Amino acid sequence: MSPAELLAKVAQFDALIVRSGTKVTREVLEAGRGRLRVVGRAGVGIDNVDLQAATEAGCLVVNAPTANTVAAAEHGIALLACMARNVSQADAALKAGKWQRAKYVGVSLVGKTLAIMGFGKVGSEVARRAKGLGMHVIAHDPYAPADKARAIGAELVSFEEAIAKADFISLHMPLTPATSKVFNDESFGKMKTGVWIINVARGGVIDEDALVRALDSGKVAQAALDVFTVEPPAKDSKLVLHENVTVTPHLGASTVEAQEGVAIEIAEAVGGALRGALAATAVNAPMVPAEVRTKLLEMSVIDCDYAANLSSKSGSSLYRSCQS
Ligand SMILES: NC(=O)c1ccc[n+]([C@@H]2O[C@H](COP(=O)([O-])OP(=O)(O)OC[C@H]3O[C@@H](n4cnc5c(N)ncnc54)[C@H](O)[C@@H]3O)[C@@H](O)[C@H]2O)c1
Ligand SMILES: O=C(O)[C@H](O)COP(=O)(O)O
């Protein structure tokens, strides 16, 4: 649907399920007021949903946090290996009739230091796989427990230490106000000359103009990017067209297996949230006497199925059910 179509139709639905391409703006949430109860993000990142506006509209936001983890980690590893061996550039050159063996000498991964920025589900799976490739793995994550990293053979370090020591830096943090453009002129300046960057997180964590400058100066040897500040990026984007940049169109979660898993995970999450919303409606229904409502709230109404069932009953039977 186009944004205009979504605005026109959203009020007809109790739940809306989106991927990253759909922006659930304040305007969309306002248009859905009165009916829309749940927004399901069929994936991890919820930076495309206006959470404040959703809260104000009384709309629950749920995501599918686990089903695409491995797909995203595998894509990160694919980009890492592809970039280190100039696969996309050599492929394009050979298809253009150029047999350039000397131009496309790569670098080895074994023994190199990889910094994982954001040691959550995807980051830790990338770490596991990089250990298998013989890389030395360090990680930065202000919230990750050190024993989780140790168990994988990775060392948790500060942001400054991670970016200063790494030969390769792979980004796996969410896009939040705190992570917006944290990779900028200043942080690129603190990295090793000739560092390699992989981003399968969000384009917005990098200042893309600063990355172009770092690529032009040779500070960054190459970058492999699955995500961009604006998607799709402009056709004449200097970053996308840069000869030392490998790009994919936000494919991290796009495997058959991941999408099937995400579909199931988000259906369950949205179903649960709708039952919860129905439970709230049941408890707050005008025919529920105040003392019964208080009792139900004391019980936290944790049995959503029970409460949802109540909401489907007519007034007097709802009252009797609430009493019992
Ligand atoms: N390219 C894709 O298709 C694709 C697929 C899946 C996920 N993603 C992106 O990757 C991100 C990570 O996914 P995940 O499933 O691992 O999420 P996650 O929540 O499991 O992990 C994110 C980690 O980042 C850490 N973090 C938060 N702020 C940080 C900061 N300032 N510095 C360093 N670390 C910080 C958190 O503590 C957490 O451990 C998602 O938010 C999403 O944007 C992209
Ligand atoms: O946050 C995510 O889960 C990924 O970026 C995948 O998003 P997509 O399913 O919209 O491609």
From TrEMBL:
This is phosphoglycerate dehydrogenase. Signal peptide: none annotated. It holds the Pfam family 2-Hacid_dh. SUPFAM superfamilies: Formate/glycerate dehydrogenase catalytic domain-like, NAD(P)-binding Rossmann-fold domains. It comes from the Eukaryota. Residues 102-256 form the S-adenosyl-L-homocysteine hydrolase NAD binding domain. It is an enzyme of class 1 (oxidoreductase). Gene3D superfamilies: NAD(P)-binding Rossmann-like Domain. It comes from Triticum turgidum subsp. durum. One of its GO terms (cellular component) is chloroplast stroma. Pathway: Amino-acid biosynthesis; L-serine biosynthesis; L-serine from 3-phospho-D-glycerate: step 1/3.
